[in-house]
């Protein structure tokens, strides 16, 4: 009877689980797509490569955009050369007006002294008025011409900025540091905006997505420390320190591939536990977590 009791005790203890929930490991993945159309001239990238954020990994043909840029720059130069030199163009009229005003003052003095008829003064005043109207008309015309050229130059400057942006987008830049998980195109292919080029994942920081019941949820908080076990198969496991980084705000039905502490629970909540990867954890690998 003693031997039977000991066997039952060992059997019970061996069935006791040292984890609260299970799930699979995942990483933050980013799919990089083309932003311009053209032939992929350079694409020095292979699956498994480690890349850093900001690194240029490819180049789309920029010939047509560059030619448009040169054409637009030429148009800008033409518009700038057409800008009128207002002071030079109105200098002659302004000088004539100043001379006419001098004549008007001289005739005014002569008329006041009775040395000249008033008609001469009237003619001088009319001449001043005519020249003043000519000057105002010239200034108005030149201002209109200048305003039109400035508007055209503004439009050209916007086009130049747009083309510069398009040229910049021909350079394929890694948006984040990580490992190339998948490569969708090869050098020499024709790509269009929105076409996926490659997928990069930050495998240095992995997340175990596990599912807990509502009863377990009350004991799990964001920022809480947890023990994470990576299952390498064949009974081989490795323990890691983890931190609860996210808890779902809505429940869902238990995924068929996931076991919870209470397998009878229909509704569970997804949680993510962040784990610093030592290089051994792979995306999709099975894992377990203990919140105790």
Radius of gyration (CA) equals: 41 Å
Strand order of the largest sheet: 1-8-12-10-9-13
Secondary-structure element order, N to C = HEEEEHHHEEEEHEEEEE
Q: What do the pLDDT scores average to?
A: 89
**Poorly predicted sequence stretches spanning 5 or more consecutive residues:** 7-14
Task: Assess the beta-strand content as a share of residues.
Answer: 25-35%
Number of strands: 13
Helix content: 40-55%
Query: How many individual helices?
Result: 5
From the spread of the alpha carbons, the general shape counts as elongated
**Helix/sheet category:** alpha+beta
Our measurement of the CA-to-CA distance between the termini, rounded to an integer number of angstroms, reads 35 Å
Described by strand count, sense and barrel closure, the largest sheet is: 6 strands, antiparallel, barrel
Textual characterization of the structure:
There is one protein chain. The protein is α+β, with helices and mostly antiparallel strands and 292 residues long. It has five helices and 13 strands. It has a six-stranded antiparallel barrel. It has a four-stranded antiparallel β-sheet with strand order 5-4-2-7. Helix 2 (63-81) packs antiparallel against helix 4 (118-169) and helix 3 runs antiparallel to helix 4 (118-169). The protein starts with a helix and ends with a strand. The model is unreliable at 7-14 (pLDDT under 50).
